[in-house]
Every structure is written in C-alpha cells, then in structure tokens.
Amino acid sequence: MSTISQWQLRAAFAARLSEMYGQEVPAYTTLVDVSREVNEEVLRARGADAERQGSIGRVTAERHGAIRVGTPRELAQVARVFGALGMHPVGFYDLREAAASAVPVVSTAFRPVDGEELARSPFRVFTSMLTPADPRFFDPDLRARLEAFLAARELFPPELLTLADRAAADRELPTKDAERLLQLAVASLELSTEPVDRAWYETLERISAVAADIGGVRSTHVNHLTPRVLDIDELYRRMTDRGIEMIDTIQGPPRWKGPDVLLRQTSFRALAEQRAMRLADGSVESGALRVRFGEVEARGIALTPEGRALYDDLLGAVDEQASHRPTETRGDIARAVWEQRMPGTEEELAADGLAYFTYRLADERPRDGSEPPATVDALVRQGWVRATPIVYEDFLPRSAAGIFQSNLSGEGTRDNDKEGAAYDAARLSGAIGRDVLDPYALYAQQQANSLARVARELGLPDILR
Length: 465
Hints:
Distance between the termini: 50 Å
C-alpha cells in the first residue's frame, strides 16, 4: 500500500492552499508572479551569493500562511491538524503589547523544526488566538456573549481531526486517506459563503477589526499567504507600478549595506471582498469586508538573544530619532543607525556572538599537517571551516502587529486603565497540550550540532566559542 509522508503532506497542503487562495484573492497570484520574477533576476545578478540563505528552489516554494482562531480548544485543534504535517508550535508572540491599536490576540507559529524538514518544505502558519478574557478590550457582558458564540461553532470536522491524529502518530498516511485529509484541511480554511450577522460583526468591529474577523463569523479562513522574495524593495516598487496599493512601509530592519538579519515584511492592502450580510430582520444583503491581504517577506540571518537585544535597542533609537526629526524618512534614519551600530559583516556577527551559523569543513582547508585550532573564530579565520548563516524561520511581533495595523479598518478601542490578562508561552502550551518551543533553543542546537560534527571530523575534543 502506498503512503504519503508528513513532509509530502505538508508540501501538498501548501501548494493546494496557495492555489485556493489565488482563486479567492487574484492579487495574491500577482504577488507570487512578481516575487518569482524578482528572485530570478537576483539569482542572475548575484549568482551563488543569492542562495547563501536557502536554495532558489526552497525560496521559490517557501510560504507562510496566517489564520486566526478564538479559543484554546480551537487552537488545540489547529495543533492537531498541523501536527499531521510535521509542524510544531514555535515562539510566543503577544500582539496586544506590540500594537498601538486594538489587536487583542496572542500568537504562535506552526512550522517544521528539523533542518532537513525545513529544506524539504519550509511551510509555516502564523496562528493567532483571540483573548476575550482581556478586560482592556472586552467588558464582562461582551466577553460572555463572545465566548458563547465561539463555543457553539465548529471550525474543523471530526473526520479531519481523526485523520490528523493518525498522520501524526504514524508520520504518514495511506494515499487515499492523505487525499481526504488534504481536501478537508483546505476546505476548512476557505472563505465561507455563510451570511455574516451584521449587527454582531459590527459590535466586535468597534472593539477591533481583528476581533470581528475571528469572533464575528462561524468559520476561520486564511488571512494571507506569504511568498519569500530576495529583494523586497524591488518587489514593493514593481507591485506599486502595477497599480496594486501597498501599505506605507516595509516592516523590520532597513535596507542597508550590511547583512540581512531577521525578517522584513510588507503587504498589499486588505481588499474589499463581497460577503453576504444577515440583517436584524433575517433578510440577507450584499456587503463588503476588508480582512484579507497579501503579505511578502524577505528573510535574513537568525540572531542570538544578544543580537536580538541589539536589534530591539536599535529600533528604540530609531523611534527616538524619528520623533525629533519629522522631515526625515524613517528608512533613512534607520539606515544611519544600523550603519553606526550593527556589525557590517557576517564574520563580525559570528565573532560577537550575535547571530547563528552552521559550520562545515572547508574543501580547501590546510593539508600541511598543522594542528587545527580549537576555537570557532580561529578555525574560520585560518580556513579550516566555512560558516553558513542560519535562516531566521520565525516572526517579529512588532512587524506582525504593524502589518495587522496597516490593514485594519479602524483603530478600535482599548482601555489602558485596566490591567491586561496574563498570557505567556507556558499558558499557550497548556492550552494546546504541547510545548510551545523556544526558537532560540532550536537555532542554538542546530549550530551546536554542526560544531560537534566538525570537532569529530577534525579529531578535536571540543570547539570553543
């Protein structure tokens, strides 16, 4: 009997989701086409250097999606579905604190964690959960109504969850069952044609457009699918030239002369999509909602906690300078700050312990009988090993919140005089019944494994930083 492995399920799911979303949101197909054009041109211009952070095959196939759910029970079901595809919850993101406007969600990202699995199918889904218990957004009456509404709906059919549990346990499925799982999983994320209760939706929308998108409907859907591009500034220009309205900025680090780090993101603006709206008298009329948009990303090098602290410090410096220099663009200010304080080469990032790399023996290493040094820096400097940057596979809460905010229909309401409900990675882990993994630990382990392999190959007892 033929079977489909988890990574094949993941790749097939990503491809089908992309096809479905392109049919629902045609501008997404334009975004994918322009990304491919830009990537091919960058590859021709830069050659092998363009593939230092992933082969062009991986970059072209790469996607991340975003969905939103309302309750811990729903998030646990999401974890079961993505667990079938070999995807694990990684990282905790509190968008309530990262956003200036009302974005009452906490998030994690489901993705592969093994390097080989990422290379085979680097698919991620940024998954946000509503926080009805946060009194800054929801008073007791609205919270009770919202929780009752969420408890009464079903996002994922029992058959899908049963198949997902089998795939996760066996790490594969028979071909027929795999096909059924894929059909059900994609269908569960399609935009529903069921009429939306206009009064209920507008009640939540006054609090937050994100809350309305989650709790104002009886289903969930893909909010965006994100291709990866090698030159996001060029993509932004080309999309604008095609008449597609983009958000005002590219979120994340600035474009500068040094290494790309972490993640840069932008999107086209949320589109007005026709939806059936049910009125108080039971009649149905056509309306429009703006909830889905087209995001694109450029990924850089994963930073260590020390590197991330520097990044956050630089963001603070840019914020401060921008507040005092309103005539200058934020991009120009950020670029100047980066060039003053961010190491300008991969070698400096590695030497300062600010970024993660994998290491391998150099083909042209010394063959004169000399003993290899026992530190990473010396091994690299003397040509014994080569360092390859580890791609940042995760997300930035401030950037995610910035994308969300740029596509909201309004600022919403938030009572900052009240204390927010406490959420953290441990609480999210308990809610979904599996550990939310620490991305830093994953990168550090990947780096450590590569150094241990080099040490064995060189006959060294250990390699020191």
